[in-house]
Amino acid sequence: MTDTQPEKPERPKPTARRRALGWGIQIAIALAIFLLVRAWMARDMVEGPAPEFEAELLDGSPVALSDYVGDEPVLLHFWATWCPICRLEEGEIVRLSDSHPVLTVAMQSGEPQEVIDHLNENERELATINDPQGQLAARYGVQGVPASFIINTDGDVVFRKQGYAPPLELRFRLWLARWL
């Protein structure tokens, strides 16, 4: 008695075109999921006219959003001393402030001296408002840090993002905001 099994038909190998199409579909699905998650994270953040505020910088000088809105788009950046992602992007925010108006808000990071110590320890110079109870953050709908808003010359929020913002993306959005 011979034990023979029928031969399985040979499966055709996918062509390069078919493989590329499969990869393209997978990339499109991943990109769509990424964009949906990003939109969901920013759902409560302010849109349209940026809420005006008056506050005090860490050095004690008064500041208002209107002091920054003018000839160029402004980056309003919320961060915290206890946030590892904020620390990761801190250096780039400082470099960005060399060429663009940047105002930062230290959200729920303790007393002003603690925030000053954090900035000095990391050799960072930024125009920073201390927001120990998160009141300013709440006005902007910030639920977590880091959070970034780009405000155009008309005082409108034209870009908002919660989470890490790649440096090139922020630079591109600031450039683009000149025409929005």
From TrEMBL:
Q: Which SUPFAM superfamilies match?
A: Thioredoxin-like
The protein's name is Protein disulfide oxidoreductase
Question: InterPro entries, alphabetically?
Answer: AhpC/TSA, Thioredoxin-like_sf, Thioredoxin_domain, Thioredoxin_ResA/DsbE_sf
Organismal lineage? Bacteria, Pseudomonadati, Pseudomonadota, Gammaproteobacteria, Chromatiales
- Transmembrane region positions? 20-41
**What is the source species?**
Thioalkalivibrio halophilus
List the PROSITE patterns: THIOREDOXIN_2 (PS51352)
- List keywords of the entry alphabetically: Membrane, Transmembrane, Transmembrane helix
Extract the GO molecular function terms from the UniProt entry.
antioxidant activity; oxidoreductase activity
* Residue stretches making up the Thioredoxin domain: 44-180
